[in-house]
Amino acid sequence: MSMDRRASAPRFPRVALFDLDGTLLDSAPDMVVTANRMLAARDRPPVGLALLRQHVSKGARAMVAAAFPELDEAGRDALVPEFLATYRQELGRHSALFDDVAAMLQALEDDGARWGIITNKAEYLARDVVAGLEWQRRCAVLVGGDTYAEKKPHPLPLLEAARSLGVDPGECVYVGDDERDVVAARAAGMPSIAVTWGYRLDGDDPQAWRADAMAYRPGELLDPAAWPRRPGG
Prior knowledge:
The chain is built from 9 helices and 8 strands. By secondary structure, it is of the alpha/beta class.
């Protein structure tokens, strides 16, 4: 390949920001084991992965609600601390990166791009995950759901992540598997990619989220041309 062609080849965005659960990490098995431990402690039968998987991106309260559908809101809220404590014990024991995620992150780094994580998971849990994956030195920024006064779909976490990295939001791309990810990115003025391999409720239509791009397999994001850019970027 000539130097001219190499110089004109598309490059990855300078900053790629990711949701965690359902985007980089298939963490549903950890959460299902957590819910089933709580059910077993109450002499209740276990629930299957298929039932709970779609609720993973909605957080601990949604998982408790799915596992204990008979409880009212107050009853569910009362079980959230137990869920989080049990989940921390199971964190990373059953989960795995989605196929090609490791290669995609390496491709970003090889291109000189930085990448980070913005999740609604509590920051202390997200840091445990990052440590378990040995990403501490690789992840340029980590924002949890309680890091700032707002969480997704509010744009504040994305704006603060960009600010901490010294870049304009439009120079970043945010990648997620939930409509909240796309809403937050749009409000932050940040291009977005909606991915379809994560956790969605029945009836959710990622096409309707109006992301700047769609990805159906992580391997698609190994191609720099699959990443949206702001006009002139």
